[in-house]
Specification:
The protein has 211 residues and is mainly α. Helices cover 81% and strands 0% of the residues. It is elongated and about 100 Å long.
Length: 211
């Protein structure tokens, strides 16, 4: 058998295989191209979203410095509505909540903080929103709901803030022993040599030595 005969047999087998499997191969190649294109498009889209959101957030902070309340509301609302998947939306909700609270609109402030808790992409933003909302609830004597709100397992470096707020809530509840424990835990969770330990010591002293 010559080399050419062997080549012809290989060619016939290849043609037969292609006849059986060719469509699947083409479909796989097309699908691979689509997936690569979709992946690149998604990355470019996310990058463009982040860039646009960053610019809007900078504008919002400038509006805050200038005291332009209407512009703060408009820019913050756009970030929360159109750029909710970016970290800037949660930060915008915090700024809006602060502006609303300072304007005396506590209901809007609470709603914006709740939005940040539910939708912010960064843990630190969600913790900040939860702590601020619980502080408002403390001011409005909603002690049990506030205690439930701050009862979270993963506190991600906010342990001292959570424990201090828990202590403040328990004082309002007249649970002085519980408040002492919370303030002590808050103090133990502070970074070494933190000057804030003085504030916690004052709160502990105000409660007296206890039993």
């Amino acid at each position: 058998m010559s080399a050419y005969s062997s080549d012809n047999e290989e060619l016939e087998r290849l043609q037969a295989w292609w006849k059986t499997n060719g469509r699947a191969v083409i479909a796989g190649v097309v699908l691979g191209v689509i997936l690569v294109f979709a992946g690149n498009y998604w990355r470019h889209y996310k990058a463009a979203q982040a860039e646009a959101a960053s610019a809007l957030y900078e504008q919002m902070m400038m509006n805050q410095q200038q005291g332009n309340k209407d512009a703060i509301q408009a820019t913050g609302g756009k970030l929360m509505q159109d750029f909710a998947s970016t970290p800037y939306a949660g930060k915008a909700a915090l700024l809006l909540a602060k502006a609303s609270f300072e304007a005396g609109d506590v209901a809007s402030s609470r709603a914006q903080l709740q939005w940040a808790i539910d939708h912010a992409t960064e843990d630190a933003t969600r913790h900040a929103a939860r702590l601020r909302l619980a502080r408002i609830m403390l001011d409005q004597a909603e002690i049990e709901p506030a205690l439930k709100l701050i009862d979270v397992k993963d506190q991600d470096g906010f342990e001292s803030e959570y424990q201090e707020l828990k202590g403040d809530l328990l004082v309002k509840k007249a649970d002085m022993d519980g408040a002492r424990r919370a303030y002590r835990q808050a103090k133990e969770s502070l970074p070494p040599n933190s000057s804030y330990a003085r504030i916690l010591n004052i709160k502990l002293d105000d409660l007296g030595p206890g039993k």
